[in-house]
Amino acid sequence: MRSAVAILLTFGALFSYSVGVDPNNFKTCEQSSFCKRSRKVQSSGSKYALVEGSLNTYSDSLTAELVNKENNHKFSLKLEALVGSSFRLQIDEKEPLRPRYRVEHALKGQPELGRIRERSEMNGELTVIAGNTKAVLFADPFRIDFYEGDVLAVSVNAKNWMYFEHLRQKTSAPAEAPEGGEQPAAEAQQDDEPGTWEENFKSHHDAKPNGPEAVALDFSFPAAEVLFGIPEHADSFILKSTSGTDPYRLYNLDVFEYVVDSKMALYGSVPVLYGHGPQRTAGVYWQNAAETWVDISSSETNVVSSLVNFVSGSRKSTPPAAHFMSESGIIDAFILLGPKPMDAFKQYSALTGTHELPQLFALAYHQCRWNYNDEKDVTSVSAKFDEYNMPMDTMWLDIEYTDNKKYFTWDSFKFPEPLTMIKNLTELGRHLVIIIDPHIKRDSGYFFHNDCTERGYYVKTRDGNDYEGWCWPGAARYPDFFNPVVRDYYGSQYLLSNFKTVTSDVMIWNDMNEPSVFNGPEVTAPKDLVHFGNWEHRDVHNLYAHMHLMGTFDGLLKRDPNQRPFILTRGHFAGSQRFAAIWTGDNMADWTHMQHSIKMCLSEAVAGFSFCGADIGGFFGNPDSELIERWYQTGAFLPFFRAHAHIDTKRREPWLFPERTRLIIKNALVKRYSYLPLWYTAFYELEREGAPVIRPLLAHYPQDKDAYSIDNSLLVQDRLLVRPVMQQGVNKVDVYFPVKDDKKTGDYWYDVDTYQRHDRVGHESVPVDEYKIPVFQRGGSIVPKKERLRRAATLMLHDPYTLIVCLDREGKASGTLFVDDEKSYAYRSGSFIYVKYDFANNQLTNSFIGKPNYKSEAWIERIVIAGLGRLPSGATITVNGVTQQLEVSQRDQAVVVRKPGVKMDVDFALKLNY
Amino acid sequence: MRKTWVKRENIYYKPFYKQKSKMILLLIILVGISFIIYQASSINELPNVNAKWNLQHLKQKHKQMMQALGSKQDYDFGDAEAAIADSTGAAAEQPIKIIRGTRLFDYDAYKPNFDGKFSCLDGSKEIPFDQMNDNYCDCLTDGSDEPSTNACANGRFYCKYQKRHITGRGLDIYVPSSRVNDKVCDCCDGSDEWTTPGIQCPNKCA
Predict the structure, then answer these.
(1) Which domains does chain A have, with CATH numbers?
(2) What is the residue-averaged pLDDT of chain A?
(3) Max intra-chain CA distance, chain A
(4) Average of pLDDT values for A252-273?
(5) DSSP secondary structure letter of residue A704
(6) Are the C-beta atoms of residues A521 and A87 closer than 8 Å to each other?
(7) Given this model, what pLDDT does residue A308 score?
């Protein structure tokens, strides 16, 4: 939605639009004292070693002691083998002064432990084998190598950049000589450094009562060539080297008019990073909710060094590596050993979970704006979509619907009868989503504020008072969602008995939950606030949005246990995908932001957040008609499909543009709606298998080195290749067709508009017009579609399906389809149809995965087959032993089988006759 | 310096009302309009003798016509065989049945042509007559082969209630085919929801 610094809004749009964010409002590594200290280790290295004789192995794990040889401080290490080729490495102080924070609620449950098959020890190396993977521990200097098969995939602390600041007492006079011999000189000097026991940034003071407590560790990926992950950054999909620049930063921040190609922190933080090479893909999930910086050393070699390597015949000397540096907490790292990209993504999903199957309407088109002014506005926008026969499923209300930004209330002048308005929408099959933010207006007439004040539900300052910041309502306070009682209280506000002016069809948008505090340091809450359990905000910052979502999700589930909740969030952490969809925040109406919507969502998708999209048209600024046309076409192939705009922008509903633009937008919407069965099936398979819905090319073409850096295209599952047009005024775009194996062959790709086949690999120039963006279906796949147009996706429930069969080189294809009631949790108890279609030897058959146990009125309307050599004379369908002849005709370069007419839960075989 | 002659109009602005010719023209128009209004208001006072132009009579006739039209527009089953049977003309006395979702104007177009086929209204294609209205879109360009179903994305469903002006003028009332049987009552008479179970559309036609 909107972004911080309300004052800036008054400064006139033009000025701020052209300038973008002021980077001086946010810290650099140099200004963040722990980052500076942790990064310093990169030049000197550290000296950690395993303590001899401290090793203990158990059936699923091993423990050991670790010592910092510079100050003899002891640490305890625990390495657990997890099922599915993963390990978990935890390092904490052996006897910390106070307990250190361990992240809660990010994992979807206790990870399932694997079994250590074997251990062996020889000359200072301890090897443990679990499944197909093994870990080799080296005592001095401390290092752990993780192997998948026999390939070294991840090496922990190979660079000796581990850094662990133990908790300490503040020396009374730090300037004086260290007392006794307890504190070595180096450390005393470090304590002395500014920023260690207190830190200032701009006018903000951070008290830092616990002193230095940073943790850092490096991970090398010897089998990898590129690194990707750690969203959310407005940067390329492949991580760039950070030598000479600031590291990538993970700290949930409300960045006003963020700039692209930047390593600055944005609204969400997902500390999972993958290393990928032709043979192996491995990942590291660094579970830490404090501010985190990640240094990337890439294996990019310059000409000279590659020449040297070529001459010497050696492999490049330094593999790509990542150095995670967090301000507090413990080292808690999950090593995901692949070996293929999809394996690594699924291993991460197994830990932190996936978005559950959303209601179908959530995958359809959302119409949003800050703000739809009143009931009449909402109703008339909805009616206009009908007038122009454009499908639309959800109307959104931003903050202005509330009574003075008091959430759970309505502005009684603009929205006197919300229930009537909601009924008018739901009668048309549409939904309403309203915003509920975490800042609570300080207003003695506001029940929520009064309850929270009386019961002490707010986040506290260091001296125990309720923390007060400045946000949309003016003076606002922030509920401490880390307290389960507060989450319950907050969740219960959604019950229809409490929130009487909505229905259970109204879904929720949680914004500003980084948290955004306009007058706070870096537009967020100060780090020395105190949360439930006496943890500092410093320890838990990146989790605040996550806890907010937990409360919302729980509340919506209690409100209607039979309806799958839909929540949109801006702030997020690892695991938040279990509760909510995300969008890329407050982008701008320009072409580069549109290009970054693909890059950012791909990074989010591999980090668990498949349900991702960007504000269509750009939040700030006014898009011209070409930009908005192209943006709709692009957005139609991202999972979350919503148009949104800032309050200061011109109205931009499709009919306010020239007719040409309106028709192009309608075309994009219709295309999106026709592919809804594919999106829905993909989300079911996300929940079932943990496979991302949208994927980078390398997910399925891991050996194609040229495909690694392609982030202007995306795959929808492994079925569609989408290359949106994201430049102004072009009549052709460059599409990259990936290589499947080392023999330089690729898949067949069929243009979804004409069924024209592409069988070349590499870059190819594809002509486009204003209606067309290049979308290809992979030869060998079957895509379910619904080609009948409705005004909303919910009304398509019983509409017939079309199957698009695209044949591969062997004349085969297969694909799945998931059918259920598109709304309730009945599918969890088996009420669904999950069917796989196979085409081979001129015959299409279906087979059910699980028992087809849902009564659907839908049927198969037509089957389109692309890639047949010649036109068949007809087709014969056999259902329950009864055969029937079907007509076959040519459409573009495909063959259409007319009206098979079989229901979805019936076995059939359809044979083409020649 | 040489003197130049300047048009008077370019120096003084002459207001509209001082231009005599325009004012006269305006007067004539106003008189004309008031005369027509006067004539129109007294139209009902014309003697009854000239029954052909009597407004009451016209009104009555229109009413009869609309009623007849209404009974003619009694939909048949929306299925092709009935239309064929109808076309054989066995039942001359019965009201004309038109196919659900078509308009009387297109009555003849929804009959088999000389080859016994249905040709799309835009003439783009001919299809076997039994493929007309069989819930599968064949006329891709205009969607005209599926007047009663929602199979064609670009088709039209003409509501049963068609409002006509007394002179017979008026726009056809229709909804896009996508609104047929979608559980939402779109035609004021609810005729677009004809297979939807459990949906009772109230008749809201004025």
Answers:
(1) 6-15+356-689 (3.20.20.80), 32-167+210-230+270-352 (2.60.40.1760), 729-913 (2.60.40.1180)
(2) 90
(3) 96
(4) 92
(5) -
(6) no
(7) 52
Closest Cα to residue A264, out of A22, A545, A559, A551?
A: A22
Give the chain A residue nearest B186 (alpha carbons): A428
**Is B184's CB within 8 Å of A862's CB?**
no
Give the span between the Cα atoms of A253 and A255, in whole angstroms: 6
Please state, in angstroms and rounded to a whole number, the distance separating the CA atoms of residues A209 and A198: 8
Alpha helices in B17-54 (DSSP H): 20-41
Q: Which of A404, A538, A553, A530 is nearest to A478 (CA)?
A: A530
The 3-state DSSP class for residue A121 equals: strand
Distance CA A374, CA A427 (A): 19
The size of chain B, in residues, is 206
Pairing of strands A125-130, A133-138: antiparallel
Instruction: Quickly state the pLDDT bin for A18 (edges 50, 70, 90).
Output: very low
Q: Is the pLDDT of residue A725 over 80?
A: yes
Would you call A429 an interface residue with chain B, using a CB distance cutoff of 8 Å? yes
Residue B123 pLDDT level (bands cut at 50, 70, 90)? confident
Residue A505 contacts residue A475 (beta carbons within 8 Å)? no
ipTM given for this complex: 0.83
pLDDT for the residue numbered B87: 43
Q: Pick from B136, B179, B182: which is nearest to A861 by CB?
A: B136
Report which secondary-structure segment, H or E, holds A817.
Answer: strand A813-819
The DSSP 8-state label assigned to residue A264 in this structure reads -
Q: Is B136 on the interface with A (CB under 8 A)?
A: yes
Q: What is the DSSP letter of A499?
A: S
Average pLDDT over residues A552-575: 95
């429930």: which residue's tokens?
Answer: A797
Please tell me what DSSP assigns to residue A509.
Answer: E
Of B134, B178, B184, the CB nearest to A389: B178
pLDDT digits (tens, 9 = 90+) for A583-614: 999 999 999 999 999 999 999 999 999 999 99
Instruction: Check residue B53 and give its pLDDT.
Output: 57
**In this structure, what DSSP letter does residue A170 have?**
P
CB B102 within 8 A of CB B150: no
Chain B environment of A789 (Cβ under 8 Å): 153, 176, 178
Taking the domains of chain B in order of start, what are their residue ranges? 16-45, 58-179
d(CA B138, CA A466): 68
Distance (Å) of CA A33 to CA A374, A549, A694:
48, 31, 38
* Contact flag B184-A427 (C-beta cutoff 8 Å): yes
Please answer yes or no on whether A791 and B179 come within 8 Å at the CB atom. Answer: yes
CA neighbor of A216 nearest in space, from A157, A280, A273: A157
Give catalytic status of residue A528 as yes or no: no
Q: What is the pLDDT of residues A631-670, one digit of tens each?
A: 999 999 999 999 999 999 999 999 999 999 999 999 999 9
Torsion of CA B131, B135, B138, B142, to 10 degrees: 120
Contact at CB, B153 and A790, closer than 8 angstroms? no
A463 carries an active-site annotation = no
Give the pLDDT confidence of A317-371 residue by residue, as tens digits.
Answer: 689 999 999 999 999 999 999 899 999 999 999 999 999 999 999 999 999 999 8
Give the DSSP letter of residue B149. S
Instruction: Give the separation between CA A427 and CA A796, rounded to whole angstroms.
Output: 14
Picking from A75, A64, A74, the residue whose alpha carbon sits closest to that of residue A138 is A64
On chain B, the residues whose CB falls within 8 A of the CB of A670 are 153
Q: Which helix (H) or strand (E) holds A844?
A: strand A843-848
How many degrees, rounded to 5, is the angle at CA A322 between CA A317 and CA A324? 150
How far apart are the C-alpha atoms of A162 and A77, rounded to whole Å? 13
